Amino acid sequence: MTTGVQRRLYELMVLMKTADDRLSKGIATGEFLCVYWPSRGQEAIAAAMGVTLRPDDQLVTTYRGLHDLIGKGVPLEEIYGEMMGRVVGAGRGKGGTMHIANPDKGVMLSTGIVGAGPPVAVGLAMSAKRQGLDRVTTVSFGDGATNTGSFHEAANMAALWDLPLIFVCQNNLYAEMTPTADTMKIAHVAERAAGYGMPGVRVDGNDPLAVQSALEEALSRARNGGGPTFLECVTFRFRGHYFGDRMPYIPKDQLAEALAADPVPRFRGHLEAAGICTAEELDRIDADALAAVEAALAAVLNADASPIDDLEQDVYATPITFPG
Description:
- With 324 residues, this protein is of the alpha/beta class.
- The longest helix is centred in the first third of the chain and has 27 residues, at 3-29.
- The chain has ten helices and eight strands.
């Protein structure tokens, strides 16, 4: 792997962290209002997708997808704008945090329902295969989604039809507020892949290099007609299920251990130790991320809220007139 790619991984991870931190600060201080589901702690997975997926590869993510959106190239202004109901948002502020998409960047859907993404991803992957494209669809979801019927149906169909699809399970060890151990009998979520006849790979989701390596293998398999791969990336969610969740269900020692293994400073340490970046270079990356986040936030807060007159706009491709 080139040093440039590793530097880019860090740039993305820092931007994701900074964007999440700034939302938390702004809501906590009353500077602005919005709802969001934090992804802090899961940056390594999304950064690896960001440097590995091609621009034309498609992504389906979830309401906890701030990091995924950034990794795929959706502008921060569009993300924040949608969260805060402003006209500069990806959907002019009408979809909100749960429903951010940017097809030009390959982000086809953000789902607000647990487990709703995989069936849509199957359709996208089937479309690419029928058109003879080597485009791959990636669908991102949490461990809890693998307990839904929609996931199982999608996994079965993807494997049966050898679709160019990668299932990326960001296993943060909690399905909303329930430990994974209380929701499934198996030790590793990746074991479920065997039931569909597809490879199941388990990696350290806090190591962007490990995630990237696994993604590259899965992408190669998919592009060459080998069908789907299930990738379990084991990570941790540093904040609650939603912002404001006090997390009484997470043992303090478990959270402390996870925070001590924060993937962002961990990867920074790797870049310094390997001589890939100096401390000064990394400090500049940190500063640039903060500047980018503040600039995007300022633009959003200065933008107009979506007007009520827009409620009936962009609902149908062709206007429909009902009899009076």
